[in-house]
Here is the input.
Amino acid sequence: MNFSCPKCLTNLNQSQNTLLCVNGHSYDIAKSGYVNLLMAQKRSSHTFGDDKAMVEARKAFLDGGHYEPLKNMLCEIVKTYFPMQKSAVILDCGCGEGYYTQGLLDTQRAVTLFGIDISKNAVIHAVKRCRDESAHFAVANAFKVPLADGSCDGIVSIFAPYSIDEVKRLMSPSGFFIEISPTEDHLIGLKAAVYDETYLNTPPIHPEGMTLIERKSICYTLKLHNNSEIQNLFTMTPYTRKTSQQDKAKLDKLNELSTLVGFYIAVYRL
Ligand SMILES: C[S@@+](CC[C@H](N)C(=O)[O-])C[C@H]1O[C@@H](n2cnc3c(N)ncnc32)[C@H](O)[C@@H]1O
Here is the structure.
């Protein structure tokens, strides 16, 4: 199985360094190993990927192991739902720089993994992390995923935007959708260090037409002991885009931070 053509949704086949569909649409595979399947589109909130600084900050922060409990829990859940299922296809939708994708790959060596993200910078890092012939990466939009109908046994969305209609289109009849989202008080200590007034995150919404199989949560206190880790944590979040320079400057001399982190992990099926 391979990606589908984003123009006509027919299967893409590889010929040397190019992916080709039967209708003659072709996409070059970059030297670094990813393919760009993003169609020209109007800029909107749905097409706003992470920039280089955000991607590099996330990579450095995640490499520090601060969210390892979440990665481990995700991998345990995936093992439960795909025990020894050799032909399973899993999509990491909005895979970022591939930290969790790599975890999935290490857990389930037998699966075929697809990772997509709208940020080219993120995908370049994901390819580097997950060098394995069963992992395939594309720059693509989660709202128009270049994969065939019913082709995914598992779809994972970790802190990333998604379209529930796309999830339903992509899922095989026995497939699972795993959504990871922040708890209401996730990063409350970081927000308190930056903003005069903190606010809680909105709780996740049950996706329409899906059946909840299980929901778990993990919460713990994260303690950071140097400024670059604190800056990386802040820079990898969407707050980095909507915070004034004045508020950002509050982090400049901060060398200690204690904050709650919390994650909901929900497993759905059709
Ligand atoms: C908060 S990051 C999470 C990345 C990764 N899942 C992780 O947890 O490390 C959100 C990711 O979604 C990507 N993204 C945003 N809009 C997207 C879209 N329309 N399609 C695909 N990816 C998108 C961003 O580029 C970013 O990498």
About this structure: Residues 181 and 204 are 7 Å apart (CA to CA).
